[in-house]
Sequence to fold (721 residues):
Amino acid sequence: MRRLLPFALSPFAATLASAVASTLAWAPAHAQTDGTAAATLPTIGVTATPERQNRASVSGWGDGPAWRAPYQAQTFSQDALQQAQVTRLAELTKLDASVTDSYNTAGYWDILAIRGFTLDNTSNYRRDGLPINGETRLPLDNKAAVEVYKGISGLQAGVSAPGGLVNLLVKRPEGRTRSVGLSATDAGAHLTTVDLGDRFGDARQFGARLNLAAERLDTPVDGTRGQRKLAALATDWRLNPGHLIEFEIESSRLAQPSAPGYSLLDGRVPSIHSVDRTRNFNRQDWTLPVVMAGTTGSLRWQGDLGQGLRARVTYGEQHLQSADRAGFPFGCGFDDFAQYCANGDFAYYDYRSEGERRITRSLLSELEGEARIGGMGHRWQLSLLRSLHKTDVNNTAFNYVGDGNTYTGVPGLTPDHTALGAGLDRTDRSTELALRDEVALSESLRAWLGVRHTQIRRNARSTADGTAAPRISEDLTTPWLGLGYTLAPSTQAYVSWGEGVEVLHVPAVWYGNAGAPLPVHKSRQTEVGLKGQAPWLNGQQNWSVSLFAIRKPQGAGNPATGEFLLDGTATHRGLELQWQGRRGPWQLAAGGMWIDTERRGSANPAVNRQESTNVPEHTLRLSGQYTLPLTWPVSVQADLVREGRRWVDVANTARLPAWNRVDLTLKTTTPHTAGQQWTVQLGVTNLLDAKAWREAPALTGHYYLFPMLPRTVTLSARLDF
Fold:
């Protein structure tokens, strides 16, 4: 493997310069030697696609029709995100029944769960297919679409937690774009965006697109006012009809105080009607905002090599800086860190982690083509990915400063920001070689075969005393198999099986082996599904049904040793339904998931055969949009979000009730007049002002409860000119 890729990942600027030089030297020479007409490259942008699709490019199985994809996925275009008032990844939960919250609050990065498994922010997020670190607020202003791939991703990613992947597609130059947007909420937030793009040159071979955003952040929760900025540029150069170079870069910064959650009261879930949903425990004179800044960019060359061969080389780099600060409640005194006292009392801490740095570098080379072998058609792809993930966290402050109460809040306390806790420097390197093949066995029968070999090299060192954890070097192979049969026109039944690799790290608190990497373990999934596309009352409909079973290793603290160790497995079995239809002025979408979970093999007998925490027993998403036939068409969209009961604690003694939320959106678009067009939208989140506990994530050994936010009204306008 090292001979195949004999290089070290270099600083961003040097790599970009080297890649541009080599590409410019090679591409024209190849074009001169290739006498055949090069085919047009596949489109990268997705703005011309439907608002929602049942497929995702991050799957790696090409651009075939959605009904023939042997997996479950959803792609949400920019229009779909704006119509649903989605401004951060955490809000994807309202669009897909398989996606749920897993610790989402103001002033923090987004954490999602798919099929009940929390995604790993260091390995389950992609940007145009390249690995990125999600331990920051990932902006959506310069994204053309968001893809959600569901299920084990051992073929798509050498290392990732089970459940799925989230892939962000960057806006690319597509022609003339002139757009300015404004929005404001009744909570005090307001956002300004600019989107400018065009093509230049005699043959319009050069393209550029600029996205800018400035936002004052605020929520109905007290003390969460902050600010966010983004600047992003995407350019391309069409060397000839068969070769394209693309470069893009974005820089963003967010500063906002966080809002800690509530908790159990000595094993009891407090009534949602007894607490103030707008109270923020992180309100002291010395409270500082969480700051997340990042610069991310990529350079990509893709070309048609002739003879049906297409190649693509992409280099990406991401630099993140953050300061994580909060005054927050944590446990009942020093006796029970998992929850608050029966009367609502809690211990209060001053937490500060300054100067956190995270770097991700990756180089992906891909070669794909089509061939007929043994009378069967093959669509194959060979890829090689080299990645580096580096995390540097300095010594942290985590100091007890006083007490507060669930119902009365926190009095003024004296801060203590003495950094006594050990930080962590961690480096993960991986090299991944993958081969996938779609085989047409007959007109009705298809097979999908894939295998990925991953080399993993990991090490970690404490910043307190320089103590290094044992290095881990492992080589693993993850296969993926699928078989699909066309039952009727545009209708396919499929079955698939795959493995994934998950890297577990010990949380950097409490444990004797804090921060150490644990041995790599595999997750496995089996899925059976039925997908189709058909006419519907002079319109169009897409639908899918799938059954899945996923098993993954779990980690937990061992009271006997004081260490965090692998501790059995969790198995999630579920049923997913998805339907989308369009007919005349109507657009409808429905999705549901019913899931059963079970823990096994734990050293704690009270955990075995219990259900996983913070996983709703069912979810439902319904969306209906109707366009009124007026001079200025007005669309009315209503969204219903329902999530069933979920357990809070691992022993399954406390459970949150099911809840429902209704959102409403009114949107109108004026006719083009003098080259200008206005789009105005009025949205109401939680229209009925429902009160409920939204989620119950467990983090660093503590059970949190987050309430559903009160009704919020958003007014936005966009001018295209």
